[in-house]
Design a protein that fits this description.
The complex is a heterodimer of chains A (448) and B (342). Chain A is mostly helical. Chain A has one domain. Helices cover 69% and strands 6% of the residues of chain A. Chain A is built from 14 helices and 6 strands. In chain A, the strands form 3 sheets. In chain A, strands 1-2 form a two-stranded antiparallel ribbon. A two-stranded antiparallel sheet of chain A has the order 3-4. Chain A starts with a helix and ends in a 13-residue tail after the last helix. In chain A, 53% of the residues are buried. Chain B is mainly α and 342 residues long. Chain B has one domain. Chain B has a two-stranded antiparallel sheet. In chain B, helix 3 crosses helix 4. The chains are: A mainly alpha (448), B mainly alpha (342). Chains A and B meet through helix 3, helix 4, strand 2 and helix 14 of A and helix 3, helix 4, helix 5 and helix 12 of B.
């Protein structure tokens, strides 16, 4: 089979699976800090119980994140050797910085967070929790710096010729703060906060519906819901900023997001639809005339670069980018509505009586997960055919000396092993949720 | 080949430090894994697991960061090694995945079949990972066929031959010894007594492997000794390495477990230092045509990147060492199972 295609399938599969976990640990990390801070201030054992319960779930999620993350670290080399040679000088330093600044911090202090309850003072423990959350955020920073450089390369120059081309650093800070870093980082982090917040909300809603751990679940709701609201609203802002950046730096991607072909303005926006790639237009859609022009330029008459400006082989696969992008936006809007509605009810002290809404929250945990996956899919597929925008094509970047059979072997193993891991993860997570928080007041107390 | 103290050599050293740190730290928890199935009884196995529970994850970060540093400093090597040794690295990755989840999952369910399954996963994946790491080192020493572009020309099976397998087995033995000495620090009573016997056997096995691998290297891999022959002072490293190894049974005999463990750490570090001196300035030696070897010069990133990373390392490494040290200090002493244990 085609080595190129297999390498892409393997990368997409392993990164999508990996990306189920880091957003949860980033979001849950923030919540653990909030919960434990609450405990330290109030000395209410309820919050200690809450923190310990979620710390255990954090441990499970983190383990899966580490196990699947180590694959990503080496897959650039195993399956994308031409790419690795090309970007090593710029990409590698971000990856090394991630290891030095993020992973060590996260995994080191995780030991105290999980196993140190009886070994250190409460304040030291809280410090460790903060460091774990900080480390989780740092890891997002560096990998997104590296990925953003692939989207909007800056601070480099290309040297060499033929198949020995490579990008070298000229200006480190330009590279780190390339045009898309901040938009994409804030957008991804807010997505991660949503993922963490909606996980806590989902489990708490489940307990409330079952009338178990009621006080604890209500308290957890009060901590996680504001975060869900803030993160969901932030998505609106950071998403818009991201799209504006894409319009400037990756016009083909924006055009694919919107299924926009025409070169002359005004450009319309579709709330949903089906792209007819042959006829180069969106069908069965709901159209807002001139909206795209207004969103991008603040002017309803201004033209927006359409896909016709690019040769067919220089365009990303439009349909899949259009659909993943639109689904992400729909999910994002839904999460805003849901969290705002819940917040209003909470402020009127009527939330916990709305069983139907709690049921929605039980399943809403899937919303941020799906939106995160879809958003990344549209961002990465939207960059095609480039692996590094305008510098290196994906088709030229894979490892030529690895055979299709070898990749088929590893891909099949990944598929089997990851399916097994997902089932085990859900089984153990469910087990922990069914077991519920331990009542630590009856056990040996926290060392004062 | 004489040593030159330029930027590339510094990065050769620093990448080496990361991998040596990995071998020294993850080495003992891999070794604990290798010995895991020899322990009888659920509680004893839990004690072994919890002896490494708080720290194994941080130890593995040394590998991840080493990989990142290799990618950044010597991208040609990263690309050639990982794509060239594809199947071997995939097996290593699956080994590390299974190991990570086995540690996390094992004690989460009480069923006997469940625990048995993860016990076997943990142990087999630890041994497999150690073996593959050793085989990779063996291939770096022995050399692999590279073409003029620095691409690997062999196959998975060509990586497995007597010398590389011998280095692999030697690595398993080294880690098992290192792990059993670590366990002496973390256990007490009857279990410690049993581990004391393992320590004796693993020392004997390791020393036998060490001697035969050294002889094999001297006889059949002469380029590994070029640098030492050119700079006789470096023979001191070999001597120091032997002394550290000899010191391990001595400390064990006197019942000074901490000093035995530190000697074992020093032995691992000096072994890797010797390995580094042997391969220098090559990173991947081309056995078919030495001119095609990937060296610290033709495989490196630009001087600018190396300088930037030196700053990153100078900021990051002291912090890493400080809190890694504190965490080992916090979790010092014998393992006591409690409600947070695995």
């Amino acid at each position: 089979m085609d080595v190129f295609l297999l390498s892409r399938i393997q990368f997409a599969f392993t990164i999508a699976f990996h990306y189920l976990f880091p957003p949860l640990s980033i979001g849950l990390g923030v919540l653990l800090v909030l919960m434990e801070a609450r405990y330290l201030r109030s000395k209410d054992p309820l919050y200690l119980q809450m923190t310990r319960f979620w710390a255990r779930i954090f441990g499970l999620i983190f383990a899966l994140g580490v196990a699947t993350g180590i694959v990503m670290e080496f897959q650039f080399g195993t399956n994308w050797s031409v790419y690795s040679r090309f970007v090593g000088d710029v990409f590698g330093s971000a990856l090394a910085a991630e290891g030095i600044f993020a992973f060590f911090l996260e995994s080191g202090f995780l030991a105290i967070l999980l196993f140190g309850w009886e070994r250190v003072k409460p304040r030291t423990h809280f410090f460790a929790t903060c460091m774990v959350a900080l480390g989780a955020h740092f890891s997002a920073v560096w990998i997104i710096v590296a990925n953003s450089w692939q989207q909007t390369p800056a601070g480099h120059h290309v040297v060499g010729f033929g198949n020995t081309l490579r990008a070298e650093i000229v200006d480190f800070w330009q590279l780190v703060f390339n045009p898309s870093t901040l938009h994409r980082l804030s957008h991804s982090l807010a997505g991660a906060w949503q993922a963490g917040a909606f996980l806590v909300l989902s489990v708490s809603a489940f307990y409330l519906l079952r009338r178990r751990h009621v006080a604890l679940s209500q308290a957890a709701f009060r901590i996680a819901l504001p975060m869900a609201v803030i993160a969901s609203l932030l998505q609106l802002v950071t998403g818009h900023q991201s799209a504006l950046g894409v319009a400037v730096h990756q016009p083909a991607k924006l055009a694919a997001f919107e299924g926009h072909y025409a070169a002359e303005g005004p450009a319309d926006m579709y709330l949903f639809g089906w792209v007819n790639e042959k006829e180069e237009r969106v069908t069965f859609g709901l159209r807002i005339p001139a909206m795209l022009s207004w969103m991008v330029h603040g002017d309803t008459q201004a033209p927006v670069t359409g896909l016709r400006a690019f040769a067919p082989e220089a365009r990303p696969p439009v349909q899949v980018v259009f659909q993943t992008y639109h689904l992400m936006v729909v999910l994002g809007m839904g999460l805003i509505l849901l969290s705002l509605a819940a917040l209003l009810l909470l402020l009127r002290s009527r939330l916990f009586a709305q069983r139907w809404l709690l049921w929605i929250f039980v399943f809403a945990v899937l919303g941020p997960q799906a939106a995160n996956q879809l958003g990344w899919a549209s961002a990465e597929i939207g960059r095609q055919p480039w692996i590094v925008q305008n510098l290196l094509k994906t088709r030229d970047a894979f490892s030529p000396n690895v055979s299709g059979g070898e990749i088929l072997f590893s891909l099949a193993l990944f598929f089997i092993v990851y399916t097994l891991l997902l089932l085990l993860f859900i089984y153990l997570l469910n087990d922990k949720i069914q077991h519920g928080p331990d009542d630590h007041t009856s056990m040996e107390g926290h060392r004062a | 080949m004489n040593l030159a103290f330029d930027l590339n050599t510094i990065w050769f050293f620093l990448v080496g430090v990361l991998f040596a740190g990995y071998a020294m730290l993850d080495g003992f928890d891999l070794g604990v894994g290798a010995l895991h199935l020899f322990t009888r009884g659920d509680e004893n196995r839990r004690i072994l697991l919890n002896a490494i529970a708080p720290i194994w994850d941080g130890n593995e970060v040394w590998l991840v960061t080493g990989g990142g540093a290799l990618f950044a400093a010597f991208p040609e090597v990263y690309a050639t090694a990982f794509s060239g040794f594809y199947v071997a690295f995939m097996l290593l990755l699956f080994g590390l995945i299974f190991r990570a989840v086995a540690i996390e999952f094992r004690s989460k369910q009480p069923m006997i079949w469940w625990r048995k399954f993860w016990d076997i996963s943990f142990s087999v994946s630890s041994i497999l990972s150690s073996l593959l790491i050793g085989v990779a080192l063996g291939n770096m020493a022995w050399g692999v066929p590279l073409d003029a572009q620095g691409q690997f020309q062999g196959s998975f099976w060509s990586l497995l031959h007597p010398y590389t397998l011998m280095v692999g087995i030697c690595t398993v033995a080294l880690f098992a010894m290192h792990g059993s000495i670590y366990l002496l620090l973390k256990t007490e009573g009857a279990l410690q007594q049993q581990i004391r016997e393992w320590t004796r056997s693993t020392i004997i096995v390791f020393v036998l492997c060490y001697i035969s691998t050294t002889m094999f290297t001297l006889l059949y891999v002469p380029h590994m000794t070029d640098t030492i022959r050119a700079t006789p002072l470096l023979f001191g490293v070999a001597l120091v390495n032997m002394l550290w190894i000899a010191n391990i049974p001595r400390e064990i005999f006197h019942g000074r477990e901490m000093r035995a463990f530190l000697s074992s750490c020093a032995a691992v570090l000096t072994l890797l230092l010797l390995f580094g001196i042997g391969t220098y300035p090559n990173l991947i030696y081309s056995a078919s045509a030495p001119a095609n070897s990937l060296t610290i010069y033709n495989a490196a990133s630009s001087a600018k990147t190396l300088r930037i990373m030196l700053i990153i390392a100078a900021c990051g490494v002291p912090m890493v060492l400080a809190y890694t040290g504190s965490i080992y200090w916090i979790f010092r002493g014998k393992v006591k199972l409690d409600s947070h244990s695995y």
